[in-house]
C-alpha cells in the first residue's frame, strides 16, 4: 500500500513520462491477522481511475488493521483517557 494510487494513464510531460500521484483510487494488500486469503474488497471503473463499488476511507483501513491486531477501535492513545481513539473508522469485517 502507498499513500496514493497512480494515474491510470502514463502522463507525457516534456521529457519526463510517468505516473504521478492519484488520490482518487488506491490499492492495498492485507495478509494475516484473520484476513481471508484471496478476498477482494471494492471495485474500480474499467480504467482504474475511480472507485465504482464499496469505497474504503483511510480511517476504515486503519480500523481494519487494528481489528486484526485485536486493538479495540475506541482504545485511547494516552493514559489520561482523553486523547483520541486509535481509529475513527469502521473495520471491514467482510475481509475476515
Secondary structure layout plus pairing:
Elements: E1 5-6, E2 21-22, E3 43-44, E4 51-53, H1 58-68
Antiparallel strand pairs: 1-2, 3-4
Please give a structural write-up.
By secondary structure, the protein is low in regular secondary structure. Helices cover 11% and strands 9% of the residues. It has 1 helix and 4 strands; from the N terminus they run E-E-E-E-H. The chain has one helix at residues 58-68, and strands spanning 5-6, 21-22, 43-44, 51-53. The strands form 2 sheets. A two-stranded antiparallel ribbon has the order 1-2. Strands 3-4 form a two-stranded antiparallel sheet. A hairpin with a 6-residue loop joins strand 3 and strand 4. The protein is globular and about 55 Å long. The model has no long low-confidence stretch (mean pLDDT 88).
Amino acid at each position: 500500500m502507498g499513500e496514493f494510487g497512480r494515474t491510470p494513464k502514463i502522463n507525457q510531460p516534456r521529457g519526463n513520462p510517468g505516473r504521478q500521484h492519484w488520490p482518487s483510487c488506491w490499492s492495498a494488500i492485507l495478509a494475516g491477522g484473520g484476513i481471508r486469503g484471496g478476498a477482494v474488497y471494492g471495485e474500480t471503473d474499467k480504467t482504474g481511475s475511480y472507485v465504482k463499488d464499496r469505497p474504503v476511507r483511510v480511517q476504515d483501513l486503519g480500523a481494519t488493521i487494528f481489528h486484526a491486531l485485536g486493538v479495540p477501535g475506541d482504545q485511547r492513545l494516552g493514559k489520561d483517557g482523553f486523547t483520541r481513539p486509535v481509529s475513527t473508522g469502521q473495520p471491514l469485517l467482510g475481509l475476515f
